[in-house]
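Cytochrome P450 2C21-like isoform X1, pasting as requested.
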Amino acid sequence: MDLFTILVICLSCLIFLLIWNQSYSKGKFPPGPTPLPILGNILQLDIKNLNKSLNKLAKDYGPVYTLHFGMTPTVVLYGYEAVKEALFDRAEEFSGRGSFPVSDKITQHLGIVFSNGETWKQTRRFSLMVLRNMGMGKKTIEDRVQEEALCLVEALKKTNESPCDPTFLLGCVPCNVISSIIFQNRFDYSDDKLKTLMMHFHENLEIVSTPWIQLYNTFPSLIHYLPGCHNKLFKNVMDQKKFILERIKEHQKSLDLSNPRDFIDYFLIKMEQEKHNKQSQFTMDNLVITVWDVFSAGTETTSTTIRYGLLLLLKHPEIADKVHEEIDRVVGRNRSPCMKDRSSMPYTDAVVHEIQRYIDLVPMGLPHAVTQDIQFRQYFLPKGTNILSSLTSVLHDDKEFPNPKQFDPGHFLDESGNFKKSDYFIPFSSGKRVCAGEGLARMELFLILTTILQNFALKPLVDPKDIDTAPVYNGLGSVPPSYQLRFIPV
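Structure tokens follow.
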């Protein structure tokens, strides 16, 4: 080894130690595995299945411990008590959005999901108000979901019982529901723009769930300039932003300040009202990112949950049969299922909840950050400390859900067969950063799944015991494997 190499290594170690000392002088972090210079704990983690590593480390260090992703310390919360204490009991202090470099690059800290401070507070508050005005949580949005679910039924009938991959068609329903709110229109299922948008949403979820993106988030300044799937992600999002901007420009030409038609109109009117406020959060850049947030979050997460749910029902036909029986008894065949039916359909409701619990769609949630210097348990966490809350550790808690790795609707039923709520059911996270579209998503999941099963029997192409339900990626999201099935009209 030459002298220059030795000097570079020594200098790197010195820089790391200086940064290390500065970070620890500001706070008393929980214990955790000893990080390596520059690399942190990345070599000690299974980045293909980070959940497995988090579980093992929790056994070694307890429910609150520290991991270093590169040189950034991140406090991990593992288990119901730790997650609840932080995200729910101390919601305001843990309401910051932690660093997620690949998304920070895309959103520039704008929009709802990855923003902070006044940008987040004002944009989220305004967006929730508009979504309520547009019918979220009301009968009007339920009518839209029901209508779109019937469009899906007609599209599935056209498959003529032939084997098909349901990915695209299942995504059309939540995509069109959210499109009607944002753009005041729906897409025909044959529309090429819809096909492209759906392809991008699907690819984006897969990409952000790969180990490569975990490396990007750990070493963004290095990985950004290398070839890799992050470049495909950035291109997809750029195309989506271009589509959104085109729609915004169309809205600007026909805008009536006294008669908003959809989400974009409401935002444009707010921009006009605050055009003289130099500190306004309501800008064109924020509008594009906010629409992208609502559009993407309102489409792919719901469609992936439904797609994963159908795969689980193919694997467990005895469960699907019980749902069919309950639908026939409560709803029948002459009308569409509605939300009022849910209270009379405890088994179906339990199946929908168990799908969400079992698939654990966003295993670690999105990163949080503390909004001020705080004392948490016996530790001192400085403002801005990244927080990783393991939703898996709550959704798969073996005391609350016996045999948590088994798909069992009984997890949400009492001895009498009545639906049983659980405080551990937090697939939408918890606290101030809980998913803004939770109400709409829960409505869509119930209505879409019941409408499909009201009209079709699901027929697998292989023996159910040979169906593999393990996710193909388990990073930011749990991505189900591709599969085909036959939809048999009943």
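Note for the archive: The CA atoms of residues 73 and 218 lie 11 Å apart.
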